[in-house]
């Protein structure tokens, strides 16, 4: 059974990052804005390794764009082999409403596929106004959101395993 927090004050600090060595991860990476998504991928992969994931237990797949991340996650989870899937993408605002449709679709899609399979599916998608904001969050001055996505995946995989 999970270590349960005793009272609300326990939420004041982040929990420790669990050992990831027992888990199998899928990483789905959008090819649009590839320089950014590759940086997110490097961050996520390195973080999984840092916290103990085994190379053989990290399976990475490209998809054309962020819109396809949901389908990628679904295809992985239906194999039954993954404890968590990390979706990495970068959607940059353009002149049309495409941005809004893609962001909404992938956020809803990731949520729905996680619920469908009762597995963590992590939203590692940058949704930015411009390229610089994306660079800043893919290893730049605001860190690497791929790292954060990996840590989230580990924590959620641990929670799921604890409650199984
Ligand atoms: C079409 C499109 C556009 C305009 N912009 C982006 C983007 O900024 N980031 C991204 O990941 N994908 C983009 N795409 C591609 C869509 O995600 C998708 O691949 C296509 O609409 C085909 O379904």
TrEMBL record:
Biological pathway: Cofactor biosynthesis; riboflavin biosynthesis; riboflavin from 2-hydroxy-3-oxobutyl phosphate and 5-amino-6-(D-ribitylamino)uracil: step 1/2
Positions contributing to 5-amino-6-(D-ribitylamino)uracil binding: 32, 66-68, 90-92, 123
Residues binding (2S)-2-hydroxy-3-oxobutyl phosphate: 95-96, 137
CDD domains: Lumazine_synthase-I (cd09209)
Top-level taxon: Bacteria
Matching InterPro entries: LS, LS/RS, LS/RS_sf
Keywords associated with the record: Riboflavin biosynthesis, Transferase
Known EC number: 2.5.1.78
Catalytic residues as annotated in Swiss-Prot or TrEMBL: 98 (proton donor)
UniProt GO BP: riboflavin biosynthetic process
Any single GO CC term annotated in Swiss-Prot or TrEMBL for this entry: cytosol
Catalytic activity: (2S)-2-hydroxy-3-oxobutyl phosphate + 5-amino-6-(D-ribitylamino)uracil = 6,7-dimethyl-8-(1-D-ribityl)lumazine + phosphate + 2 H2O + H(+)
UniProt cross-references to SUPFAM superfamilies, sorted A to Z: Lumazine synthase
Stored Pfam families: DMRL_synthase
GO molecular function terms listed in the Swiss-Prot or TrEMBL record: 6,7-dimethyl-8-ribityllumazine synthase activity
Function: Catalyzes the formation of 6,7-dimethyl-8-ribityllumazine by condensation of 5-amino-6-(D-ribitylamino)uracil with 3,4-dihydroxy-2-butanone 4-phosphate. This is the penultimate step in the biosynthesis of riboflavin.
Family according to the record: Belongs to the DMRL synthase family.
Name of the protein in question: 6,7-dimethyl-8-ribityllumazine synthase
Species: Mucilaginibacter glaciei
